[in-house]
Amino acid sequence: MRSSRSAATAALVALAVAGAIHTTSAAGDARRGADYFTNLELTTHEGRTVRFYDDLIKGKIVAIDLIYTTCRYACPLETARLAQVQRLIGERMGRDVFFYSITIDPEHDTPPVLAEYARTYQAGPGWLFLTGAKTDIDRLSKKLGLYSPPDPANPDGHLPYLLVGNEATGQWMRNAATDNAKFLARTIGEWVNEWPAPARGRLKSYAEAPVLTDNPGQYAFAYHCAACHTIGRGTKIGPDLAGVTSRRDGEWLRRFIRAPDAMNAAGDPVALTLRKAYQPARMPNLDLSEVDTAAVIDYIEAQSRQHAAVVAAASAPTAPAVRRTATDPAGSIVDAYLRMQQALAADRIDTIAADSRAIVVAARELGATADTIRSAAASFDGANDITSARIAFGVLSDRVIAMIRSSNPGADPDLAVAFCPMADKYWVQKGQAIQNPYYGKVMAECGRVVTR
Description:
Elements: H1 3-10, H2 34-37, E1 41-44, E2 49-51, H3 52-57, E3 61-67, H4 74-89, E4 97-103, H5 111-120, E5 127-131, H6 134-143, E6 161-166, E7 171-176, H7 181-191, H8 216-225, H9 244-247, H10 250-258, H11 260-265, H12 269-277, H13 290-315, H14 329-345, H15 352-366, H16 371-378, H17 386-407, E8 415-420, E9 425-430, E10 448-451
Parallel strand pairs: 3-4, 4-5
Antiparallel strand pairs: 1-2, 1-5, 3-6, 6-7, 8-9, 8-10
């Protein structure tokens, strides 16, 4: 979306009670329930008729925004951002968390049009796109605090607000729908649901914090582009951008990133081909500066080179695997641990039990010095799903890292320690390309290498 509007709406983070919706958790509040929220009828993208309060929000945690499918600016980005949030929330979607995207252009956005839009943005269970009578939608948007009056200076026709709330507890927050996906997912999963903070054990020293680097291209790509595009991880809502700086003329790419709407309007053949291939999603005008555009292009080029190197390394002939002997139990621990890390990064647990048992056996050979590793590996016996396996892997990782740092038992020079700030956990991997075992394919590249 346009950066100026993003900054303005981001300032509205904490409108919990006195803002868009005046509601409390008091049972006698006459403004709660259908009397306040209304029970207007809407139609889903699946063609079902639903009542707003009784069927959609009563007793649920919800996120609600306004969209229209022909929008050229904020809507594509805010819908793509919600698709990211949907993936982060995971299995809670459709169970106790629900998304509702309500069109402000019901004349055009019929259920079949919204159904195609939902497919484009990979909307899963629990995410409904809704239409209805224009007067009803206007009334509802005002009730929810999402309405924005017509503004000739705003080509979108509305501001990209996202209302997040828990109807049962009376907690509500209005935020920018284009905000950071991880922040929005955490707001929905923790703040609105009153989740207690997880136990974290001892507080870590600032000396243990990873070194942060300021990469404006990475930041701009993550904020503006990552909702729709990957670099080397395949087509998402838009095309994979790996190698795009080699495939496209540099000046064309710069102009397209800055003003895709103008290039489509001018009939640019490449822009029109892309528009046809990825409709109804359209590249929005992000209002990026020349400096930000150049930084994004530099970042895409650097990540493309890294991706190409990873692909080349994967396709190169590999040396025969080193077979550890009984006299190298520490090396056997590292080998089995790395297999577990690779499995979890690929969202697999089929080999975890065998590798954890191999670590237990090798740790016994090392004696008392490896008791903590043995007990951590033994805890995988009760890890019957990927979530519990990842929790157990976090404990094992800390102990394997401590062993490597204290003795470096014949470690491969390619071994690296990586850190994921979202999971607040470390792990050991081979090579510099991040392979996150705590998030797997959902956020495979989340994290950074902190030391070898």
